[in-house]
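Need tokens for this chain, all 166 residues.
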Amino acid sequence: MKITRKILASLVFALAAHASFAAVDSYLYWMVDDAKNQYNDSPISFNYATVSIDGTYLNLYDGTTDLDSYKAGVDPVFGDYSTGSYYAGYDSSVPFSTFLVELWINDDTRVGWKTYSLSELGSYIAGGMNQVGSPLVVSQVVPEPTSGLLSLFGLAALALRRRRRA
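Here are the structure tokens for all 166 residues:
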């Protein structure tokens, strides 16, 4: 009886994994090259990048190897993004409006981000890997505020509040 349950559970898991992998029918071809702050062109250091759609991180592929074990946002895909480009696979039948590219130093420190609408990325999306000429190059990103900047805003808000009371 226990063996039958284990076999049934394994079969259900295998079918679910196959169904989720089979749902990928479109790919965004992208890379990060020389990431800079879009406001002042200062360089932004990062260890890895992720791509998500409406909060769901996409699986990454390098065009020849299935990087499914390196799910973006869970296990970092480290590498030299200036020489490597990746495919982010997604299910195009699911409605969404934007792609979000995020740059990370570690699993909980986001250092920059950039959003793109689906209409902006039409020439970088393909039905299969290796079907797009050049990748979307992410180079200008919105930086995350530093703790010093956040403190400055907080102190300014307190000063304004105090001024209004006086």
